[in-house]
Specification:
Blueprint lengths: L3 E3 L9 H6 L3 E8 L15 H13 L5 E7 L2 H8 L3 E8 L4 E7 L4 E6 L3 H8 L12 E8 L2 E9 L7 H18 L3 E6 L7 H7 L3 E2 H4 L10 E2 L24 E2 L2 E6 L4 E2 L7 E3 L16 E7 L1 E2 L3
Parallel strand pairs: 2-3, 8-9
Antiparallel strand pairs: 1-6, 2-16, 3-5, 4-5, 6-7, 7-8, 9-13, 10-13, 11-12, 14-17, 15-16
Length: 304
Amino acid sequence: MSKNIINHHPSDSSAIDDKEKQLESLTVVSMNIASCEPSKSAPAHWTREKSIDALRDNVLRSDPTIIALQECPGGAKFAAKIFPTYQVIGSTYSHADQVILLVKYGINATQVFTSSSPVFHSLMKKAPAPVESKRLPTVIAELEWDNRHLLVASVHLEPFAEGAHKRQMQMQSLVQLSKSMSMPLFIIGDMNMRDNEDETMENELNLLDVWKLAGSCPATQWTWDTIDHRRGNAGGFFNQYYGEHTRQYQARYDRVYVHENDMIDLAIPPTFELIANQPLTSYKDFLSDHFGVTSHFQLTWNVR
């Protein structure tokens, strides 16, 4: 298989060995950045450049190994400018702008492919069961260190409630890839899923839901929350990203799933936290219509 090797950044060469050893642990961040457009509730002085600065601050706060972005304008050049200490593994279009995957410089990262690659479609044709590969907005990287390998995918799956079956097929494609390459897989991004899809993901596709592994904390459940929380709460917020006509509801669109593939064991529970879930200039002004998520993993590898 032809692969595009992402080289180490020259300025980070002295730290490569240390960073590769640190990959016994892994920190991921994902966020649908809504094209970095200021909220309709933002004041006139809040520019797109200020939103970009706020995005950078929120994403880098947890010092992630992996950054997955959705609804990213400008593609790879835009992402590289915002996060210059990260390798841009690749970009691909979804139903709403671009999906991006970045890996910290100093880590041996290989672009496996994006969904537009002929290699991807070739692999999917060989899968044991029919899978949806025509529209799978994802960028996938292989991380390698100490003769260990894992896959990481940034995704933005089919939207709307009626897209549930297509989302299932899209996730099935990724699981088949993990199996065909005999590597564990971390799937990160805006998955647009509803609660009634959980059983399919967990029981049929054998995926681990990281929010649940981390304890199913109610405080971190909703990554889309446009409910008015001011009622009876003087310090409450109301994310009116789309202005006064913002529809009020909660959803767990943004998720992290792991397919262990009998290669790793997440016996130590991962963390799951929200980012960019605090207002900016007022109680109703937020960075995006979505909150971002971050998770930290301690990896235990199974000996074969």
